[in-house]
Structure formats: structure tokens, C-alpha cells
Specification:
Layout: H1 2-16, H2 21-24, H3 26-30, H4 34-38, H5 53-67, H6 74-79, H7 124-144, H8 148-177, H9 184-202, H10 210-233, H11 235-262, H12 272-277, H13 286-312
Helix pairs in contact: 7-11, 8-9, 8-10, 8-11, 10-11, 11-13
The structure holds fe (ii) ion (FE2) (2 copies).
The site of one fe (ii) ion has 7 residues, from helix 8, helix 9 and helix 13.
């Protein structure tokens, strides 16, 4: 009976509060202040909470401020784990405003890259890969017509998937086989991140409608699983498909540029996030952004065709060093 009484409050805590152990054990950490009493072993005071420690702290800051007459003491809360937010500044000393990427993630795009390179499909696998991409392009052209801003934004939601899937599978393979990756995990994850930054940029100039958001969810569900299975079965084929997808992306961005030059799409100022990410000039425009994005796609084309070629030669990716930082 005694033990049941002891267990009951603990079960009540677990049942009502689904958050990290940090909050549960906080009283022991912070001693006998007001929060400690509220979070004490006597039982839960609050309803279900589904947030992390930081969110709990932020909410409690307000309550704590009231209790301490407006004086915030959040420093102790945030630094308990030793996680400090160091101030990041630009080269000119001004504060860095982005948390999704840092100055060391930025780069100047190599615009001299050959945009016209094409992998001639020779084997039946190459032909199937190209046919797959051409087939996928057909409904895309019908859906988007000449709305290139919207098209770019939507297609980047797909383009950011293969690098992540390939990187993840190589990561798992490295763990399973106790093997080095040759830098390919990082290289493919870099590609995924770069593609995601394309999306973060284009959503500044084109907002998705509700049905477009729904379409992205559906397409992601299908494409992620298809690419995942495809990569498991044949990374050679998977990389070739992406190589051809990137060739199509170059073509799409070239059409995008033509529409801007014709005046059919406004050459609006470049989003601030793009100026910082690609280190563009302060007066950069949408045209400049499309130029650097297209150059990125050309680099992705090279990396993926190269990866497929490595497999064609009967080698594994890890046997040749990955082109890390190849933008
Ligand atoms: Fe992209
Ligand atoms: Fe790409």
C-alpha cells in the first residue's frame, strides 16, 4: 500500500507531462525557488505540455519576471546546459541576422561553370534515367506553364531530397560496415542543404498556395520513398537520375532568365537571405539570384553524374574522394 502511494504521484507526472527530463529534474537543479516548488515531487501543477526545455524556459521567463518584479533571470536557465549563443558578426562588424546558416556557410558562386555539359545516355540504364526525368518533366510543364518563380520554389522542395537520402544511406552504410565514406556523406548532405537554401530564397519571392502545399506533401511522400528504394537498389541509377534532373533544372532556370530579360517577370531586388548566402552585391536583383542558383545546379549535375560514373567503373564512392565544397 505504501509503495502504491509512492508510485502514484510519479505516474501522474509521467502521464500529464510529456517533455524532457530537464524539466522534471529541474527542482533539484535550481533549488528552492518558486519554480522548484511548482515542479516539485508533490505532483503536476500544469496540464499536458509538449515543448522542449527552451520553450518552457521562455514561457517561465514571463512568469518569473512577474514574480521578481520584472527582473529577468533567464541567463541561469539558458546556460545550465552550457549552450551559449555566441554573437555572430559579419566581416564589417554588423550583427549576423540568420540562424539557418552562418557566415562560414556562404560562398561566391562559380558562374564560369559550363552550363551546356550533357551526359550522353549510352547504356540502357542511362536511357531509362533520362526517360524517367523527361517523363517527370511533362506534368511539371503542364502544371506550372511559365510561372517560373512558383515552379522553382516547388521543384526545390523535391531537389533537396536526393542529397539527404543518399547522404543518410551512406552514413548508415558507414556505420554498418565500419568504413570511411571518402567524404561523400558530407558532400551529399551539403548538396541537400544547398538545395534547401534555394527553397528558402525562392519562397521570399513566391508564396505557395494551399493546394501547392498539399501537392508538396504528396510529392514528398512518393518521391522520398521512391528515391530511397531506388538508391538502395542502384545508387548508380539514382545518381544518374539526379544528374539528368539537374540538367533539366539548368534548362528551367535558363528559361526563367529569358522571362526576366523579356520583362515578363519583374526583376525585383534580391531577397536579403540570397545576398548574404551567395555574397551578392547589395543592389543584386532576382536575375543575379537565378544566375547563381543555376550555377549551383550545374555543380550538382557534375557531382551526381560523377558519382554514377564511379559506380559504372565498378568502384564504390568511398574509393574516390568526394568533391566537398563544390558549389
Ligand atoms: Fe536547386
Ligand atoms: Fe540542384
Amino acid at each position: 500500500m505504501g509503495s502504491r502511494m509512492a508510485v502514484a504521484p510519479a505516474m501522474k507526472i509521467v502521464g500529464n507531462r510529456l517533455f524532457s527530463t530537464a524539466a522534471i529534474f529541474r527542482p533539484a537543479v535550481f533549488g528552492f525557488n518558486n519554480n522548484a516548488i511548482r515542479y516539485g515531487a508533490a505532483g503536476p501543477v500544469f496540464g499536458p505540455r509538449f515543448m522542449g526545455t527552451a520553450a518552457v524556459s521562455a514561457e517561465e521567463d514571463g512568469e518569473e519576471a512577474k514574480l521578481t518584479g520584472g527582473k529577468k533571470e533567464d541567463k541561469a536557465v539558458m546556460s545550465y546546459w552550457g549552450v551559449e549563443h555566441k554573437k555572430v558578426v559579419k566581416e564589417d562588424g554588423s550583427q549576423w541576422k540568420w540562424t539557418c546558416f552562418r557566415p562560414w556557410d556562404t560562398y561566391s558562386s562559380d558562374l564560369s561553370i559550363d552550363l551546356g555539359k550533357h551526359h550522353l545516355p549510352v547504356t540502357w540504364m542511362d536511357k531509362l534515367a533520362q526517360w524517367t526525368v523527361k517523363t517527370l518533366r511533362w506534368p511539371t510543364d503542364i502544371f506550372f506553364q511559365r510561372r517560373y518563380g512558383c515552379r522553382a520554389m516547388m521543384l526545390e522542395t523535391v531537389a533537396a531530397v536526393p542529397g539527404m537520402v543518399g547522404g543518410m544511406l551512406l552514413h548508415l552504410s558507414s556505420l554498418r560496415r565500419f568504413e570511411h565514406s571518402g567524404g561523400w556523406i558530407r558532400s551529399l548532405l551539403e548538396e541537400a542543404e544547398n538545395e534547401r537554401m534555394h527553397l528558402m530564397t525562392f519562397m521570399e519571392v513566391s508564396q505557395p498556395r494551399w493546394y501547392e502545399r498539399a501537392l508538396v506533401i504528396a510529392v514528398q511522400g512518393v518521391f522520398f520513398n521512391a528515391y530511397f528504394l531506388g538508391y538502395l537498389i542502384s545508387p548508380k541509377f539514382a545518381h544518374r537520375v539526379v544528374g539528368y534532373l539537374e540538367e533539366e533544372a539548368i534548362h528551367s532556370y535558363t528559361e526563367f532568365l529569358k522571362e526576366i530579360d523579356k520583362g515578363n517577370i519583374d526583376n525585383v531586388p534580391a531577397p536579403a537571405i540570397a545576398i548574404d548566402y551567395w555574397r551578392l552585391q547589395p543592389g543584386a536583383t532576382l536575375r543575379d539570384v537565378v544566375m547563381v542558383v543555376r550555377a549551383d545546379e550545374a555543380h550538382h549535375r557534375d557531382v551526381n553524374h560523377y558519382a554514377s560514373d564511379i559506380h559504372v567503373q565498378g568502384l564504390k564512392l568511398k574509393e574516390l574522394p568526394a568533391p566537398v565544397g563544390y558549389h
